[in-house]
Design brief:
Length: 242
C-alpha cells in the first residue's frame, strides 16, 4: 500500500498509509493530514487513489503545491516524488513488492502508450490517406478483449460508445480495471471497474466532466446504464452489455 512520509527540515514527523480513496491535506483540523502552519491553506491539497495510482490536486491554495520543485495543479504521483508545502515535505512511497501493475500499465495496449487511446477517440486522428483512424481504435479494443480477463463480481460488461466527433458510433469495451478517457492537458477522467459497478473520476483539467449535463464533482461517481458523459468536447454513452 502506498504511503506518505511527512517531514520538516529533515525530521520525520509522521507516516501515513494511503488507505482511503481521498486524502485531504491542510491547516484545518477536518483534514486527513493536518499541518498547523500559516503557510498551509485550510484546504491545501487532495490525493485521490484509484487502484494503484495516486493523483495529487492543489485546492487553489494560497502558496501553491510543488512536486520535486515544480508547481503543480494536478499531478500523477510516482515513487519517491516529494510534495512540498511551505517548509514541509511529503514523500510518496510505493511498496515495490506489492502485486499487480500500475494503472498506467493496465491501460497500455499493444504499441499504444498510456493516454494515447483517448486521443484516438477525442481527436480527429487522420491516417495517411486522410481518413479517420478507426483501425487503431478497433485494434486497441481487440487487444483489450484478448488480453484482459473478465473481472469477478461484475454481472455485465460496461461499454462506452462515442456519440460525437470523427469516431462517432465507435465502441470501447471497458474490460480493464482502469480505462483513461479524454485529452491530456485539457480534460482527463478515468473509469474504474469494481465488483459493484463502474465509477468515473475526474483527474485532469480545470473543468469537470459532465454526466447527464451535470458536473460530476471531485469524488468517484457510479455510472448507470445509458448515462451520457461529456468529456473534452466529446459526448459518449455508457451502457451495460449482458
Amino acid at each position: 500500500m502506498p504511503k506518505l512520509i511527512l517531514s520538516m527540515d529533515g525530521l520525520v514527523l509522521k507516516e501515513i498509509e494511503l488507505n482511503k480513496e481521498r486524502t485531504s491535506i491542510g491547516r484545518k483540523p477536518n483534514n486527513d493530514i493536518q499541518i498547523d502552519n500559516l503557510a498551509i491553506s485550510g484546504q491545501h491539497a487532495v490525493i485521490t487513489c484509484i487502484l494503484n495510482d495516486a493523483f495529487l490536486e492543489d485546492q487553489n491554495s494560497t502558496n501553491g503545491t510543488y512536486v520535486n520543485g515544480q508547481p503543480v495543479k494536478k499531478h500523477v504521483l510516482h515513487h519517491n516524488d516529494v510534495i512540498e508545502l511551505g517548509k514541509y515535505r511529503i514523500k510518496y512511497i510505493v511498496d515495490s513488492a506489492q502485486p499487480g501493475m500500475a494503472a498506467s500499465e493496465m491501460i497500455e495496449t499493444s504499441a499504444i502508450k498510456p493516454f494515447e487511446l483517448v486521443s484516438t477517440m477525442t481527436d480527429v486522428g487522420l491516417d495517411a490517406t486522410g481518413a479517420p483512424g478507426e483501425t487503431q481504435l478497433n485494434a486497441t479494443a481487440a487487444v483489450d478483449r484478448a488480453e484482459t480477463a473478465t473481472l469477478s463480481g461484475a454481472a455485465c460488461l460496461g461499454v462506452i460508445q462515442v456519440l460525437s466527433g470523427a469516431n462517432s458510433g465507435r465502441e470501447l469495451e471497458l474490460t480493464k480495471s482502469l480505462t483513461t478517457l479524454g485529452k491530456p492537458g485539457r480534460q482527463v477522467a478515468v473509469i474504474t471497474r469494481r465488483p459493484h459497478g463502474y465509477f468515473i473520476t475526474h483527474v485532469e483539467g480545470a473543468a469537470l466532466p459532465l454526466l447527464n449535463g451535470k458536473a460530476i464533482g471531485a469524488q468517484a461517481h457510479l455510472l448507470k446504464d445509458h448515462d451520457i458523459i461529456d468529456l473534452a468536447g466529446v459526448k459518449m454513452e455508457f451502457f451495460l452489455r449482458g
